[in-house]
Design a protein that fits this description.
By secondary structure, the protein is α/β, with parallel strands linked by helices. The chain has helices spanning about 40-55, 60-70, 75-85, 115-125, 125-150, 175-190, 195-200, 210-220, 230, 235-250, 285-295, 320-330, 335-350, 355-365, 385-390, 395-430, 435-445, 450-480, 485-495, 505-575, 580-590, 595-610, 615-625, 630-645, and strands at about 1-5, 15, 20-25, 30-35, 90-95, 100-105, 160, 195, 220-225, 255-260, 280, 655-660, 670-675, 675-680, 680-685. It is built from 24 helices and 15 strands. Helix 2 runs antiparallel to helix 3 (about 75-85) and helix 20 (about 505-575) crosses helix 21 (about 580-590).
């Protein structure tokens, strides 16, 4: 019997014989160990735990694996799964080999070889399982060594700010803005702060775990801030604070975690924070209380002394004077001389951060350091900036990173303002339903900026008003034709907007007019009936006189002549002269199947036009027919004609596309649209 298990790496399906301890995934092809699935309950627990682990919700997964071990403490796979959770193992696809390889998201000082769960996994594993466990443990241990080697080079942090940077739509959260403010407040007080937006900014393209691991272990305080319950429980946010909570328990009071919330109920904070004193960020004096508490924990009674960088000249005092000359040239706007003197300093002292700063300013044509914040674009890709980060002191590096953050914020603000202003301007001149809907989508793209959400709603309301006004005007126009069918169509239109203007009153008027027209037709029919009776009496007198003549004439005109015409029309149809045949069949009226043949002739003629891509001519014929699928073919013809017309349109041009009242052939009208934008084979109308 074949059992089914979900792959621990990619979630694919693994089929295996009952009792097997190793299987191969049919999706990623990875050979891996399997649990002992004795019953459906255990299988369900494994599926749920592995789901959490694959989604990096390691704490939730650990709880379920421990539940499995409570039922069976000899399950090697459960012990190994706990190892994967403890070290935050995530299997990712290697782009070169397409194999799944482990990454460590929860580095530990303890080697995986010394982990008790790993030892238990080996103890209860069979030979096949043990071989795979040992191979994977070797890979994890090598990754751990690399992480520890990098993290040991990092300077210790005082404070770790934990927050959610972006929402599900990739937009920056309010939490990010609050964290940014907190970072600058703490930095100005002299604290060394881990703030991912700035601290990891120059780590693009490399794994973040070594730096996060170093910061978590060195920081004396973690501030977890948020404005929504789901932000506190976001996977990677929780990954950071749950790891830090474990360190707090082991620190003997030397570490502390401070939850900080705003615009939410404190009772919605994670249960793990229940024993902690949470801080309300909207409370007056919050920042002062927080800084005072951090100073106490970090054993800093006074702010750290900010040490200004002293130029190291390797025994040559010329570097100081050369640097001063360079910055004087910068003040005068003499960029080439400033760069030349900075290079002279670097010839003497290749690690002089001030010289690299001067070169950066000369390249960006900035006279003062603080004016770097006014640069048009962030300069983190500049090689001189990267040298400053490498050789500069914390204060200088922090200031420059702060400039970059402010440039990004300003550019983002300008981008949002540009979109907002254009949308507001377009809204002032909009006069079509489609335009209002397009503008509403633009406002939605900057949701949360100023009153964009309110204006988006107003645009949709305007679009709805224009739509209803259009339906109302069209229905009123139908009422002017004076036919029962038109009044019935008008009623259908008014019923679509039954609460709009006086639509209900117009419906009543239409129904009353229908009854009046029916009554008028009935009276007319009765009068015609009476008149016919009078004429009948007169006709009887002369009927006998002309009876014989009538019989002869009737035979001639109802049999002989129509039959000849019918045969002639059939010959024309067979020869492919469909419209000539149609003319004769149409004049024959109800003779034999002439009416059917007339429709068939026109239908065949229009079908040929459609096949020859003469769409507009085909539409005209199909649109006049009530035969077979003429209505559908008319729609197909006009659609193809309209698509052909859209090939080379330009912005602002008026085009026809789609039909109004498509269910009533006599009322079909092409809809006019304005071209808003074009993109390759796409047209926005």
């Amino acid at each position: 019997m074949m059992a089914v298990f979900k792959c621990k790496m990619c979630g694919g399906t693994i089929e295996f014989e009952q009792g097997s301890s190793v299987g191969i995934c049919d999706s990623c092809g990875t050979k891996q160990t399997l649990p002992r699935l004795d019953d459906d309950k255990k299988s369900a627990l494994y599926d749920r735990a592995n789901h959490f682990r694959r989604n990096n919700e390691f704490d939730k997964a650990m709880g379920i694996y421990e539940q499995i071990l409570n039922e069976d403490n000899t399950d090697a796979e459960a012990y190994w799964s706990l190892v994967l959770c403890r070290y935050g193992i995530e299997y990712v696809e290697d782009p070169s080999t397409h194999k799944r390889v482990p990454t460590v998201n929860r580095a530990q000082y303890t080697s995986v070889y010394d982990d008790d769960n790993y030892k238990s996994a080996l103890q209860y594993a069979d030979g096949y399982q043990r071989e795979i466990y040992e191979e994977e443990a070797k890979s994890i241990n090598e990754i751990q060594k690399g992480i520890l080697a990098i993290s040991q080079k990092e300077e210790p942090f005082d404070v770790f700010i934990c927050y959610k940077e972006t929402d599900n739509n990739g937009r920056r959260t309010q939490d990010s803005v609050l964290a940014n403010d907190l970072y600058y407040q703490l930095t100005n007080e002299g604290f060394k702060v881990f703030f991912s937006q700035i601290t990891l900014e120059d780590k693009l393209g490399v794994a973040y775990e070594p730096y996060i691991f170093a910061a978590l272990n060195s920081a004396k305080v973690m501030v977890v801030l948020g404005t929504k319950p789901e932000y506190f429980n976001a996977v990677w946010v929780k990954n950071e604070w749950s790891r830090y909570l474990a360190l707090v328990k082991q620190s003997g009071g030397k570490k502390i975690l401070i939850p900080a919330y705003r615009d939410m109920d404190p009772y919605d904070l994670p249960e793990e924070f229940a024993h902690l004193q949470a801080q309300d960020m909207s409370k007056l004096g919050f920042m002062q209380d927080l800084i005072r508490g951090i100073k106490k924990i970090a054993a800093l009674e006074e702010p750290k002394t900010v040490v200004r960088e002293v130029i190291q000249n390797s025994g040559n005092t010329n570097t100081e004077s050369l640097t001063k000359r360079a910055f004087l040239f910068l003040e005068d706007g003499n960029w080439s001389s400033a760069k030349e003197y900075c290079d002279k300093v670097l010839d003497i002292d290749p690690e002089n951060a001030q010289a690299y700063l001067g070169k950066l300013m000369a390249e960006l044509q900035v006279r003062e350091q603080k004016s770097l914040v006014d640069c048009e674009r962030p300069f983190y890709g500049n090689s001189n900036y990267q040298k400053i980060v490498r050789f500069g002191n914390d204060k200088l590096v922090s200031e420059l990173k702060g400039y970059i953050v402010r440039i990004k914020e300003r550019n983002e603000q300008n981008r949002l303002e540009g979109i907002y202003s254009d949308a507001v301007k377009a809204m002032g001149s909009a006069d079509m339903e489609a335009v209002y809907q397009s503008i509403a989508e633009t406002f939605r793209s900057i949701s949360g900026y100023k009153d964009a959400d309110i204006l988006a709603k107003k645009c949709l309301e305007k679009a709805e008003i224009m739509s209803k006004d259009g339906i109302y005007a069209s229905a009123c126009a139908m009422m002017s034709d004076g036919d029962t069918a038109d009044y019935e169509k008008a009623i259908q239109s008014f019923e679509c907007i039954v609460d709009w203007k006086d639509s209900q009153e117009q419906i009543a008027i239409c129904k009353r007019r229908i009854e009046e027209i029916k009554l008028e037709k009935k009276r007319k029919a009765e009068k015609e009936k009476i008149a016919a009776k009078k004429i009948g009496k007169i006709a009887i007198i002369g009927a006998s006189v002309v009876t014989v003549c009538c019989v002869v004439v009737m035979i001639l005109y109802t049999v002989i002549i129509p039959n000849n015409k019918y045969n002639n029309a059939m010959n024309l149809y067979a020869a492919g002269d469909y419209m000539d045949a149609y003319e004769i069949f149409a004049k024959l009226g109800d003779y034999k199947d002439s009416s059917e043949k007339a429709n068939e002739s026109r239908y065949t003629y229009a079908t040929n036009l459609l096949n020859e891509e003469q769409y507009e001519e085909a539409f005209d014929v199909f649109n006049q027919l009530d035969y077979k699928d003429s209505s559908e073919k008319a729609m197909n013809a006009i659609y193809n004609a309209q698509v052909a017309d859209l090939t080379n349109v330009k912005v602002g041009q008026t085009v026809r596309f789609g039909l109004y009242a498509p269910n009533v052939a006599s009322e079909r009208k092409e809809i006019e649209w304005t071209v808003l934008d074009t993109d390759e084979n796409k047209v926005l109308i």
